[in-house]
Write a structure and sequence with these properties.
WH_DNA-bd_sf; 4 helices; 19% strand; WH-like_DNA-bd_sf; single chain; Arc Repressor Mutant, subunit A; Anaphase-promoting complex subunit 2
Length: 124
């Protein structure tokens, strides 16, 4: 049997799901359907990765207001370095600057934080 395998992440990040899109190699008519299936799987895996990241980051959401209360306004780099320094227990903070920036942007859009001239502050 010939076809194309599409890969997506299951409920767990280490659970990969492979789907055989059969017939794609036999005739060109199904190539559009194959592309659509791959796009849908890609969108689902991106959404599940984003959901997983959001779930992981909510643990650190509790630390951020405390840091901003103690230090006042903080830059993205300073928040990132402070989380790396103090959040070493389970789960340790191991996110990238881009991941943290995306999460903080969400907190700004939820009006929990403000961003002024590159500095994050608590919303009053």
């Amino acid at each position: 049997m010939q076809g194309i395998l599409s890969e997506s992440l299951g409920k767990e990040s280490d659970n990969h799901v492979f789907t055989l899109v059969d017939g794609a190699a036999r005739n060109g008519d199904n190539s559009a359907n194959c592309e659509e299936a791959a796009d849908e799987d890609g969108e689902r895996s991106v959404a599940s990765v984003e959901e997983q990241l959001l779930k992981e980051m909510t643990v650190y959401e509790k630390f951020i207001p405390g840091m901003l209360t103690n230090f006042g306004s903080m830059s993205l780099d300073r928040i990132h370095n402070t989380l790396k320094m103090f959040c070493v227990a389970d789960p340790p903070y191991d996110k990238s600057l881009q991941q943290l920036q995306g999460f903080l942007s969400g907190l700004v859009s939820e009006e929990k934080l403000e961003l002024r001239e590159g500095m994050y502050i608590l919303k009053r």
